[in-house]
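Weekly modeling sync, notes
Attendees: S.R. (lead), two postdocs, one rotation student

Agenda item 3: backlog of single-chain predictions. S.R. asked that every request posted to the team notebook include the full sequence so nobody has to chase files. The rotation student volunteered to paste the first one in as an example of the format we agreed on. Action items at the bottom.

Example entry:
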Amino acid sequence: SKNEVQERVAEVMQQVGLHPDQAKNYPHEFSGGQRQRIAVASALVSYPKLIILDEPVSALDVSIRAQVMNLLKDLQDQYNVGYLLIAHNLATVRYMAHETAVMYLGQIVEYSETEELYKNPLHPYTKALFSAALPSHPDMVREEIVLTGEVPSPINPPSGCRFHPRCPFAMDKCAVEIPVEKEVAPGHRVSCHLY
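Predicted structure, as returned to the notebook:
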């Protein structure tokens, strides 16, 4: 009924930190953080099992970003909902994700539990990605990997391993053979001819 819908909307608005009366406001009357909260609330209305979060905090400033990520984690526990998080910010991924898949030109090159992946990245692209990110601590020493060349076109990707034109460890077979995914440790899989 209409009353049930209004009650459910009011409930999820309160859960994401908005006042139910704000449901009558126009979109331009909300801040970026409030709009993200509204997007989360609208996703929760139907009690989903899975929510796809595509760059959920990328357009927000740092203070609001932390609030929204904490809200998402709290709601995940409260609703027992799974998230498929798509993000470029590695700090966001590390904070939000239990498991992480690293993709290059549309293909998964490495997959593992998030903390294992951060401790032991294997694929050359994963290593390069992590080396380009700011360290989590000022005293942390990290190997700097600089990739050469341009990112190939995803419409016309290179043959073999898609990363081989930029890979510092590329071998002849990388240009012709697509690497097979291998489980190198329990739950840690990599698609690379080095393994």
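Discussion: group reviewed the output briefly. The domain at 2-96 is CATH 3.40.50.300 (Rossmann fold).
Action items: rotation student to repeat for the remaining queue; S.R. to check formatting next week.
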